[in-house]
Amino acid sequence: MIEITLDGRVLQVAPGTTVAAALYLGGDGSSRTSVSGERRAPLCGMGICQECRVTIDGQRRLACQTACATGMTVETRP
User: Is the pLDDT of residue 63 over 90?
Assistant: First the structure.
């Protein structure tokens, strides 16, 4: 199992799990908060819609295009 930190909580996922899948497994499924304060979730699953933007190890990345790696820190809230 791979261990990541998702919004301050430790989560174990299977190898090959995308960060988008980890959002559903260990959180509320949301990837970010919109400018109006609503929680947003991945939509297209292939990087086109940009709804899955998260901060991974300090850099903005697409959750649906990023595989989880041991020690990764994922943040969905500012």
Answer: yes
